[in-house]
Design goal:
Elements lengths: L1 H24 L5 H23 L1 H4 L4 H25 L5 H7 L3 H11 L6 H17 L3 E2 L2 E2 L5 H22 L1 H7 L1 H22 L10 H28 L2 H8 L2 H13 L5 H25 L2
Antiparallel strand pairs: 1-2
Helix pairs in contact: 1-5, 1-11, 1-13, 2-4, 2-10, 2-11, 4-8, 4-10, 5-13, 6-7, 6-8, 7-14, 9-10
Length: 298
């Protein structure tokens, strides 16, 4: 059953990139408003379900833990979500989903910074993954380095910033996750992030853009419920049932699903060079995962 939950979370997360690209490329909604709606509705769903099934674990929450959730939400919800959606205004669903897979590399680097030992395999994985990302972004080309970024490259860089924010959240949220449990911590972080996003939307100088068609509203609500609330629930159910090493490998199915959905629904294409970049990134991540596998002994 754990494999099912893991597969479900990977698939649902892949639909985030396709839906967001559909909404943002067509300028149906602005990135911050999309982030507000996604996480506010998602947090409401998680809170409602949690109060029914895990009431004693959701409530009460101490002021210290909520303050920690606010801090982590600034990275794991606001930074990750807003940078991702601004990036997707200028880059494809395929690019954004693949670039987000460098999160394990960033998490590994941060782990080293806070005291974990750097292995040779881990260092090699970092170098290989960064090279693959450069290929994907057309910074590293068959002719050498191309350091003049286009609008599309800036979109990719914003997505890299999103991945970095998620890595900060993943590493430094461990204390509050250990105290509250995974589901409760995620629920409160998402709720705190929704509050922060509302404040950001109120002070942001650009006008609010809301969907004008029913199909666009359906995409927004879908994103809030399925690849946000349900996907996070599925992730923690999988974490409860299977080893983390298996769970991490399963999540690398996300860009595969995204590529298929983007081809089927958005008509996106990839160049052979970018496809080679995917293979290089996968090789780098495999090296990092191999190091993690040996460290955990699983």
């Amino acid at each position: 059953m754990g494999i099912f939950w893991s597969f479900l979370s990977a698939f649902l997360w892949s639909t985030t990139f396709v839906c967001a690209r559909y909404l943002l490329a067509g300028k149906s909604i602005d990135p911050i408003t999309l982030s507000v709606l996604r996480f506010a509705i998602g947090a409401a769903c998680l809170m409602a379900f949690g109060l029914v099934r895990f009431r004693s674990k959701i409530l009460p929450i101490s002021l210290k833990d909520f303050a920690h959730c606010l801090l982590m939400a600034s990275f794991g919800v606001v930074g990750m979500g807003v940078l991702l959606f601004f990036g997707q205004q200028h880059t494809s669903a395929i690019n954004s989903s693949i670039i987000m897979q460098v999160c394990p590399v960033f998490i590994f680097l941060l782990g080293v910074a806070v005291g974990e030992r750097l292995s040779l395999a881990g260092f090699a994985g970092i170098v290989v993954s960064l090279a693959g990302t450069a290929m994907l972004m057309n910074v590293l080309t068959p002719r050498g380095l191309a350091l003049t970024f286009s609008l599309g490259n800036r979109g990719d860089l914003l997505v890299i910033g999103s991945a970095a924010c998620w890595a900060v959240y993943a590493v430094f949220s461990k204390p509050v996750v250990n105290r509250l449990g995974g589901y409760a911590a995620t629920t409160w972080v998402m709720a705190a992030g929704a509050l922060e996003l509302v404040v950001l939307r109120l002070v942001w100088p650009a006008p609010v853009v809301l969907p004008g068609r029913a199909i666009e509203w359906a995409a927004v609500i879908y994103m809030a419920i399925f690849p946000t609330a349900i996907a996070f629930f599925a992730w923690y159910e999988a974490m409860r049932l299977i080893r983390l090493s298996i769970l991490n490998v399963m999540q690398y199915l996300t860009p595969v699903f995204t590529i298929f959905l983007a081809w089927l629904l958005l008509g996106e294409r990839m160049t052979p060079w970018q496809a080679a970049g995917i293979a290089v990134i996968a090789g780098g991540i495999a090296l990092v995962s191999r190091r993690d596998h040996k460290t955990r002994g699983t």
